[in-house]
Amino acid sequence: MAxxxxxxxxxxxxxxxxxxxQQASPKINKFQIIEPNSQNQPDSNNEKSTPNNESPKKLKIxxxxxxxxxxxxxxRQRKMSRWLMPFGFIxxxxxxxxxxxxxxxxxxxxxxxxxxxxxxxxxxxGWIGSFFAARxxxxxxxxxxxxxxRNEEGLWLVLLETSLESQLPWPSINEIQPLEVINLNxx
Length: 187
Hints:
By secondary structure, the chain is α+β, with helices and mostly antiparallel strands. The protein has helices at residues 11-23, 69-99, 114-135, 142-152, 170-176, and strands at residues 2-8, 30-34, 58-59, 156-162, 180-184. Helix content is 45%, strand content 14%.
């Protein structure tokens, strides 16, 4: 996916860009308007939008996973647990079946239930492992620091995301004339 941040000085330009992109041919996967985060900027209401709710919801910068490490860590953990938990279950089931351990037999369970308990313990280990694996990734990027600074200065940001095979609709973007265009590599 290609991620691009557009910087604007007025909210009206972000809404105009949204209208222009609705008519453009390339498909935009994600379009998010990020409100300025300056103290002298009055809080705007998310319900205040164009008629018929045609505009996207305006978000604060800390509500977007790209800029909030806690949200991105939680998403990574959820994705990793989807494959680590089944892998842990199968591994625990296989290990308990191969070793013929009788760990739970002393608690009154039969020997046939040993592989099931091994699978459940393996699944729990996979779930715990997803927490540690998600925390080990560091997302400190210099581009993000400059974007946060622009947001603190009271500027509006638009996050655009497209698939890799499609390009951004540059004619529609250039028509609105953003102050700055920042391309990000989502690695």
